[in-house]
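Model: You mentioned two targets. I'll fold them one after the other.
Researcher: Yes, keep them separate.
Model: Target one:
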Amino acid sequence: MIVMKFGGTSVANFEAITRAIFIVGGRLDKKPVVVVSALSKVTDLLYRISDAAASGNVGEVKTLMGELRSRHVNLASDLLEQSPALKENAVARVNSICDSLEELVNAVCAVGELSDRNKAIIISNGELLSSTIICFVMNAKGIRTNFIDARKMMITSNEYLKGEPVVDEIVKRVPEVVAEAYKGMDAVITQGFIGSNAAGEQTVLGRGGSDYSASLIGMAIDAERIEIWTDVDGVRSADPRAVENTKYLEKISFEEAAEMAHFGAKVLHPLTIEPAVKKNIPIYVLNSMNPSGKGTAILRNELIEDGVKSVSFKENIRVINIFSMKMINTSGFLRRVFEIFSESRVSVDLISTSEANISVTVDASEKIDKVVEQLSEFADVIVDDDKSQVSVIGKNIVRLNGMLKKTFAPLKRTNVYMISQGASFVNISFVVDREELKEVVRDLHYHLFEVEEELEQF
């Protein structure tokens, strides 16, 4: 079996869905489990619906719900034009999902209060709608396909909007549900991003969680491979939107991919790698708009050569500097500091320490008021905003001769506020002013990937 995950841009419209189904049709001998995201921009629309409902804006809710319904009804009608019976059933099912959603958002609108539980239900409807439509269309194309409700097998914690997968329960349920659904079928389709807690209440894994769902399913069924179908030709040496002349990466290690995802690369969800690593399942990042392309293979470490693979970045971060003389020769100080971050569920990226100072970076979206208040009870705390984090990622890069010189040579005129080196020798990260980020990333990529190539041409 293989898992094939199609992101929002890969199921965005008539043409994209037609391509995706063609791709699945070429993999039927591998017994694919197809995982789909919501149509492109639909999850954003559902967040807008939930916000409008929470504020009691009846008019906006009606307008946005009309937009949601018409997009999916029209898409189902267009895709199934040649199959009248399936078209009728698909449109009825889409309208039924929208009717239930509309009933909920109208109730929220009347109360003027939106619980996390109801918000999770609202924003999960994109995946339910897309998978419903695509299931009907696959059957219309002659691919016998069964629909799996992910909530029956993707069990999470009780956090409605950021459910933590209960891996043991997922590993137990997924093979049984998939095997039952596959009887007499060519393929099965399910949703990414959504699940339920032990009580059967709706949860979601958080934005971008469809990749994570696919990887968890792949782990549970011991998949031969996991394919992440997106709109780019695999992983590149930097974000093409920020850097020209990026290099295509034919293969990278699990560790490199995890670092890239965590430190800003947009191709994969940061948690996607972990389940695949547990079963050593290769992940392929492929382009649904170019199905014949090789894409990027993510493989175990020993199959990957040493060297720099990527310059990644996080554009908007904060640096929190914590200074206290009580740190000197005192045990337990660091534990106390990080307990405060943990209790407030604030995720720390980079850490740098000296005798009396700890510096950490957090995403600018994190709510840190409580953290700063608690830290200030026993330390001086300074928060620096408008910073960016740049990471050079590759296998054994710290051991490569001249790598540190190459990394920091382009930064002669740049203020560097913090440097952190990963213990695994997979990344070197540093912090710069946000206003200088684009120039830093371009210069760094040029020195690491383009200078030698230019010299070879002479």
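Model: Target two:
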Amino acid sequence: MNIILAILALNLIVIMHELGHYLVAKSAGIKVLEFSLFFGPKLYSKKRGETFFSLRLFPVGAYVLLEGEEEASESERSFSKKPLGVRMAVVAGGPVMNFLIALLFLCIVFTAVGYNSMLIGTVPPGSPAAEAGLKAGDRILSYDGRRAYQPSDVYSFMTINNGEPSIVRIQRGAEKKQLLFTPEIIPAERYILGFGAQEPYGEKSTVVDYIVPDSPAAEGGLLPGDQIIGLNGETVTSKNEISAYLQQTGGQPVTVTVLRGSHEETLRITPHLEKGTTYYDTGMTFQTMRGGIGKILHQSIIYIYSAIRSVAYSFVWLLTGKVSLTQLAGPVRIVSMMSQAVRISPTVSLVVLNLLNISALISIAIGATNLLPLPVLDGGKLLIYLVEALRGKPLSPEKEASISMVGFALLMALAVFVLFNDIFQLIWG
């Protein structure tokens, strides 16, 4: 059921994208030959007016076929005969529809649960944020010289900098300050005992809150409430020190000294190697805010702008090698993420809100990605029309179709790579 809901939500986003093209084309008087749900062999088709509405075999995506879009047509209602501004509006209609759908979804979510602000909420003692001098109530303005509009911006810039020390610009009351911030690097391969601490940083970070089932900690006899005070006879006072020591010993069995109640206990535990992805921890949280419809609309627009900018940054980082192709997520992983968002929601209302939230982000990503200046994408077509405006005459539909075919072949090759990469990541991590 979770996967079905996720697939339906993803298809809805793509269908709304094509609906944007369709509505603008119809309003401009362009003849729409076909509006198809999904791809592959035709299962059903019915003509309404001058347009065939079709249902095809493979339940992914949708497309709109306009007269004169891919071949020459002398009809005054053909796409190729329309003025440049009209053709650009039709092409841009899809991404714009994605952004409008995302705006609607975000307004619903932000009205129900509030929105993230750039105001810092909590700063645990001993955390990277505390060591940098950040305080609750500070507003983060930029990270490493890049403006931060959403908390996700901070973590993106942190990741692309590989956790290197960076300048964070903040506003504290009426004062603006610059601080040097160094996040904690959590390596992709890390040795763990398998317990959760009462606090992530500070004195209680060595106090066991819970034990992970079937973990080394469970097998070694560690109990909730134990306070870890030593490893192989060396004193530890924070979870960071525990993690660093386990990395240093490389998975060798360690003697763990704990304070249990009023007396000490000695346990023998062999750490487990956990494999994941490198990430960076700050220790701080951001405040969730609420507001009226005007504030919610404003914050939704800021969120959309931030997400569009992230797509542009990611494209540049991909070209410069800062981001690997293996980090791209395709339909399989997107459906998996949406399905997980549904699965972890305890109530129907939270299922709806989580699905709307992630659908908004994916809708923005699809719209923004389609605006990239690549053949076959909407942005590639807009680039062709920009060239047309500069040279004063259009390319022939046949030449446009040839460029699209080359772009389509490259896009299909990328799609196959992303599909297999999705499957690999889901199975082997």
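Researcher: Noted. Anything on target two?
Model: Residues 2-112+359-428 form one domain.
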